[in-house]
Write a structure and sequence with these properties.
By secondary structure, the chain is of the alpha/beta class. It folds into 3 domains: about 100 residues, 3-Layer(aba) Sandwich (Cobalt-precorrin-4 Transmethylase, domain 1); about 100 residues, Rossmann fold; about 80 residues, 3-Layer(aba) Sandwich (Cobalt-precorrin-4 Transmethylase, domain 1). The strands form 3 sheets. Strands 10-9-11-1-12 form a 5-stranded parallel sheet, with helices on both faces. Strand 9, helix 9 and strand 10 form a beta-alpha-beta unit. Helix 8 packs parallel to helix 9. The radius of gyration is 21 Å and the shape is flat. It binds iron/sulfur cluster (SF4). Iron/sulfur cluster binds next to helix 1, helix 4 and helix 8. The site of iron/sulfur cluster has 15 residues, from helix 1, helix 4 and helix 8.
Length: about 325
């Protein structure tokens, strides 16, 4: 590292309101009902968060058959297909839904337009739980496109009533390109009033676009499974800046920073600030002298919690240091 090297911190970075709410739901359920609490899928895609909640008594499962009768079950922030919701109800679990309200908004839109006879084109990544959850709102009639080439391949049964929806954590630029291809093929397609890509995804990508040209190397804190963290890595990479994504400070390598003067640092929406601070500590150990916060949007979004999770003072005291 160059002498007097500095870290430029992207703003905003890290936790969004949907992640914050999802983690709080699990922690409140643990405080109120005691361990174990079952969670369908990783509550958010971050190794540190998942391990922290596991240590407190959360059990992460993919198959509802692994949840004992009478247990408390939480759906992850990514949302679930209707079939999972119905199965969970039929099995009689005490259910809390930590689906991000911005994902639920897409589910509601899909259900409403389906009743009016619409078919859908969904822009998203195959196999991502959010995409499975949104596509699973209907028994069919949602055509997934992952890239521009897919747009030519799909075969809706009609083109009179078509609507487009997107995964909330896509690259804003890639989604715009795919949407343009969709509109070129289906000029009458209905678009959402407000884009489905969420404010947090948009703001974090904008912050990286501001930061990346000012630095020699970018570090994104986020897990490999985190869609929005991967998109931050891609955004910085596309701007020509060498970029690394790490799950923790231990993954940083001294040679990444040799001869570098400015290091850009950001974190995906599911990565806690404690990991960012650990990365800063490690970079200081490697020779960074100062940390400078960049200007950016101050987010004030806060989503209400589901009913049934009020805590007394002792319960409140058990809530985490994570958020
Ligand atoms: Fe919700 Fe966006 Fe956060 Fe996903 S990234 S949980 S959609 S606010």
């Amino acid at each position: 590292m160059e002498p007097r090297a500095e870290v430029l911190l992207a703003e905003p970075r890290g936790f969004c309101a949907g992640v914050d709410r999802a983690i709080e739901i699990v922690e409140r359920a643990l405080a109120k009902f005691g361990a174990p609490i079952y969670v369908r899928h990783e509550i958010v895609h971050n190794t540190y968060v998942v391990n922290d909640l596991k240590a407190k008594g959360a059990i992460f499962i993919e198959d509802l058959a692994d949840v004992p009768p009478g247990a408390t079950l939480i759906f992850s922030a990514h949302g679930v297909p209707r079939s999972v919701e119905l199965e969970a109800q039929a099995r009689g679990f005490r259910i809390f839904d930590a689906t991000c309200p911005l994902v639920s908004k897409v589910h509601v839109e899909v259900a409403k337009l389906h009743k009016e006879g619409y078919e859908f084109i969904m822009i998203g990544h195959k196999g991502h739980p959010e995409v499975e959850g949104t596509m699973g709102q209907l028994d069919g009639g949602i055509h997934l496109v992952e890239d521009v080439a897919d747009v030519a391949r799909i075969q809706p049964s009609q083109t009179e009533k078509l609507a487009v929806v997107t995964q909330t954590t896509l690259s804003v630029d890639d989604a715009a390109e795919i949407t343009a291809a969709v509109k070129a093929r289906f000029p009458n397609i209905r678009e959402p009033k407000q884009q489905d890509i969420c404010y947090a995804t948009q703001n974090r990508q904008d912050a990286v676009k501001l930061m990346a040209p000012q630095v020699d190397v970018v570090v994104v804190v986020g897990s490999q499974t985190s869609s929005n963290s991967n998109r931050l890595r891609e955004v910085a990479h596309k701007l020509g800046t060498t970029t690394y994504m790490v799950d923790s400070a231990e993954e940083l390598k001294r040679e990444w920073f040799e001869g570098k003067k400015r290091i850009g640092l950001t974190a995906g929406a599911s990565a806690p600030e404690v990991l960012v601070q650990q990365v800063i500590d490690r970079l200081k150990h490697l020779g960074v002298l100062s940390v400078r916060k960049l200007d950016g949007i101050q987010e004030t979004v806060k989503f209400p919690l589901p009913k049934g999770l009020k805590l007394d003072g002792a319960g409140q005291a058990k809530l985490s240091h994570l958020r």
